[in-house]
Specification:
- The structure is a single chain.
- The protein is of the alpha/beta class.
- The protein folds into two domains: 75 residues, no CATH class; 218 residues, Rossmann fold (3-Layer(aba) Sandwich).
- Helix content is 43%, strand content 16%.
- The chain contains eleven helices and eight strands.
- It has an eight-stranded mixed sheet with strand order 1-2-4-3-5-6-7-8, with helices on both faces.
- Helix 1 crosses helix 7 and helix 4 crosses helix 5.
- The longest helix has 36 residues.
- It is globular.
- Keywords: Hydrolase, Membrane, Transmembrane, Transmembrane helix.
- This is Alpha/beta hydrolase.
- GO terms for molecular function: hydrolase activity.
- It holds the Pfam family Hydrolase_4.
């Protein structure tokens, strides 16, 4: 009888243990999800001290938009010293903000352009509880450009982004208005899924499966989007807007391989790639400031001055 009872008990024990493991895993993945996606998580530990002097001391207009999910987003518009229809939209990265993009804003402003610098949802002065990783933000960015065209019906637009902002720019290209002349993507990833898998491996030595599939469920429920859909293989396939891809060959946060993937994924003929030797993540400009200024300025001037 004892042996019969034991045979009956063991399956129940195994079921209970399995339930405990599943529940514990669910809580662990929920923690990782919040760490990566929630405002105040890992993002708050990024983007340390940067020079914000130009942003703080240069007069600007505060623009706003209300998203379909009820968030109030903000951006700052820096008018050029001399009136022009040419505007560069400067998009910040993960853990950053429009204010922390001060040096890039100054760079394009000094080139004679208006600059619009948005705060992505959950960053800077914009509302939001969860990071959009550029995918959720692509609709917001398209709306900022729509607002630019309402502000100036004769506008010509260039897009520029760093890191997550670079991915956002590449994700937004299919939604870009016809007056977008070019896009510059500095150290952007090709897919959110691949970038998160890389971070899981390098930061925690954890496998992507089953963590990312389960995290995508949390993303759909809590953040209201599916990050696994984001991939430049789709968004760049039919792109005809001139694209300049920049990446450091010593990038340990967004691997350099993504630059080559993005370049390959872009279906248009008007594309360039520049791999900056010795540059870490988002360090291309500080590693070779003269070449960075020269190359970005030349690319912008070329396509702003090209007639359709």
């Amino acid at each position: 009888m004892d042996k019969v009872k034991q045979k009956r008990v063991w399956p129940r024990v195994l079921v209970v243990l399995l339930i405990i493991v599943v529940v514990a895993s669910g809580f662990a993945i929920y923690y990782l999800f919040n760490f990566a996606f929630q405002k105040g998580g890992f993002a708050s530990q990024q983007g340390g001290n940067v020079n914000t002097e130009f942003y703080d001391e240069t007069p600007s207009q505060t623009w706003t938009q209300k998203t379909k999910d009820g968030l109030l987003l903000k951006a700052h518009y820096f008018a050029a010293a001399q009136p022009t229809d040419k505007t560069v939209v400067v998009v910040h990265g993960y853990g950053s903000s429009a204010r922390k993009m001060s040096s890039y804003i100054k760079m394009f402003h000094n080139d004679g352009y208006n600059v619009l610098a948005p705060d992505n949802r959950a960053f800077g002065d914009s509302q939001g509880h969860y990071v959009g990783y550029g995918w959720l933000d692509r609709i917001d960015l398209a709306n900022w450009m729509k607002q630019l065209n309402e502000y100036n019906p004769h506008a010509e637009i260039g897009m520029f982004g760093v890191s997550m902002g670079a991915a956002e720019v590449m994700y937004t290209l299919p939604l870009a208005p016809k007056n977008v002349k070019f896009a510059i993507a500095d150290c952007g990833y090709s897919s959110i899924n691949a970038e998160l898998a890389y971070e899981l491996k390098t930061m925690f030595n954890l496998p992507s499966f089953p963590i990312l599939p389960l995290a995508s469920i949390y993303s759909k429920i809590l953040a209201k989007y599916n990050f696994q859909q984001a991939n430049t293989k789709q968004t760049l396939r039919n792109n005809q807007i001139p694209l300049f891809i920049i990446h450091g060959d010593a990038d340990q946060f967004v691997p350099t391989k993504f630059a080559y993937q993005n370049y390959k994924n872009n279906g248009g003929k008007n594309k360039q790639i520049w791999i900056v030797k010795g540059a870490g993540h988002a360090q291309a400009r500080s590693t070779d400031p003269e070449a960075y200024q020269q190359r970005t300025q030349a690319f912008a001037e070329r396509w702003f001055n090209t007639q359709p």
